[in-house]
Amino acid sequence: MLRRSFVSIIAAGVLAALPLAAAAQAQTDPLPSWNDGATKAAIVDFVAAVTTEGGPDYVAPNNRIATFDNDGTLWVEQPMYVQLAFALDRVKAMAPDHPEWKDKEPFKSVLAGDMKSVAASGKKGLAEIIAATHAGMSTEDFEKIVTDWIATAKNPETGKLNTAMIYEPMLELIDYLKANGFDVFIVSGGGIEFMRPWTETTYGIPPENVVGSSIKLKYEESDKGPVIMRLAELNFVDDGPGKPVGIQSHIGKRPIAAFGNSDGDFQMLEWTTTGPGKRLGMIVHHDDAAREFAYDRDSHIGKLDKAMDAAPKEGWHLISMKDDWKQVFPDQ
Amino acid sequence: MLRRSFVSIIAAGVLAALPLAAAAQAQTDPLPSWNDGATKAAIVDFVAAVTTEGGPDYVAPNNRIATFDNDGTLWVEQPMYVQLAFALDRVKAMAPDHPEWKDKEPFKSVLAGDMKSVAASGKKGLAEIIAATHAGMSTEDFEKIVTDWIATAKNPETGKLNTAMIYEPMLELIDYLKANGFDVFIVSGGGIEFMRPWTETTYGIPPENVVGSSIKLKYEESDKGPVIMRLAELNFVDDGPGKPVGIQSHIGKRPIAAFGNSDGDFQMLEWTTTGPGKRLGMIVHHDDAAREFAYDRDSHIGKLDKAMDAAPKEGWHLISMKDDWKQVFPDQ
């Protein structure tokens, strides 16, 4: 019996190591920054349902697609979109090479720090700023510009790095979904090539899993070899009804879970949750003025109105930043 | 000592199972359908170089991107592109609902089987056939149409399923690259949504790893809920200089290995192999009339001329189907 017990000990220690580890992990809370309650339960129940083999709601791993909006869903979008801050900073950095901007709107107002006049220049002015700062260089040069900028760029109100103004509970959610076989994508109205240089280090989401708005690209020869140039021509707007189209173009599968925070996410949530089988749609509600910002229906940035009204009927869960999140940022 | 020997046996059998299996696999030829020679050696040497940690050519797994053309590189493109056969079959299937086609070119000639007149209708005629057969339905309906068609569609010369007319050596190459940490993409001039329904079962390449040409899509409400409609408007041509652009849009990374077979792959090969570090560019040369087809410079389908001339200078390897492949198709 001694020999058999040795075998048993070895078998228990080695063969069973894997299931034991899995069981141990299941007992650790994968979402520690979420307060217990209906919202957290909805997430955990959904993941359990779609990953239970043989269960009525089981979804094979290759169809476990989850999509996340970025601005206001994964990182702070107040007091202005980070990409707009990037564009304004670029105007200032490029100004020495553009003496004509001193007398030319909207650049003149950007350089003077007169944000009211910049805003008054409207969509046309914004398009000119984007064209001047986002086009006319190669994709590799643009990647370097963004990488250099994001390394030091700070939120103007908190003085913290933008890449630190990210939501810890959403990072946990991304990791939790990935650990359960999900393929996680960003689907943002922001520029696809503005996001790609830092999404992997910031969120663990690689460039190929980023869907966003884009300008046209052109492959051409240069004296440094072939390059892909960024043209001052809009290609695709990945916002509102554009989000399901961006999802279809890039992923070719309908998500089973989607996370947003504004009316720009309405169609992504609708497309996701009206598909067959169990689905999860969630909206980050910015109701926490103390720890972040409080805004919804009347905000110019991240307006949440139509989607908030539709949520109960559509079965979308509102994530209350105030009530559902124990901790907002990673460093708190 | 008896007890220790038991422990040793268990330890050898259980603890060491994983590394032993890995060592065994390394000694098995991962490319059995490739004849030994310079081409196979170039593949194996490249993979060894970029996966050797600490080596001068090491590439981290997240940057091991490989791209494959489809028509003529992964499956047979003669005597006509499979997608063209699909379009012609669809015209015939849809004809009862379009009595006007009996008197309207190019549909009249398609229905009469008069391929010379269809060809004479040129790009305009082809665009009309594509619009009639590829647009006007939802993405989900189109996926079903393609799935149903590909299940029985056969090559007109061999009478075999198109999905069986795939190159066994390339399947082995895809698996070999994946086993070595590569992320493998199709980058084809063919329609992205024509390929996605069958690439996973046929090649093991999932929909999200397929890049191709596309028509515009539009999200809209229908009486069956929201749908994404396919519009009769060209969106993107993923061929020639479009391939690096498609790669950048979808993947956001520059490949380190690319495989094609025609001048339509020139820029993809160039973009891939002119990047820094070790790179691999290969061209399938159809020189095997006995087992497949023999064509290059003068072919209307899969014309290989400019890229063949450039190959020696650019360091691109020609894969001779006749000399480098022991076996062409999976069932031989």
TrEMBL record, chains A, B:
<keyword id="KW-0378">Hydrolase</keyword>
<dbReference type="GO" id="GO:0016787">
    <property type="term" value="F:hydrolase activity"/>
</dbReference>
<keyword id="KW-0732">Signal</keyword>
<dbReference type="InterPro" id="IPR023214">
    <property type="entry name" value="HAD_sf"/>
</dbReference>
<feature type="signal peptide">
    <location>
        <begin position="1"/>
        <end position="26"/>
    </location>
</feature>
<protein>
    <submittedName>
        <fullName>Haloacid dehalogenase-like hydrolase</fullName>
    </submittedName>
</protein>
<dbReference type="Pfam" id="PF12710">
    <property type="entry name" value="HAD"/>
</dbReference>
<dbReference type="InterPro" id="IPR036412">
    <property type="entry name" value="HAD-like_sf"/>
</dbReference>
<dbReference type="InterPro" id="IPR050582">
    <property type="entry name" value="HAD-like_SerB"/>
</dbReference>
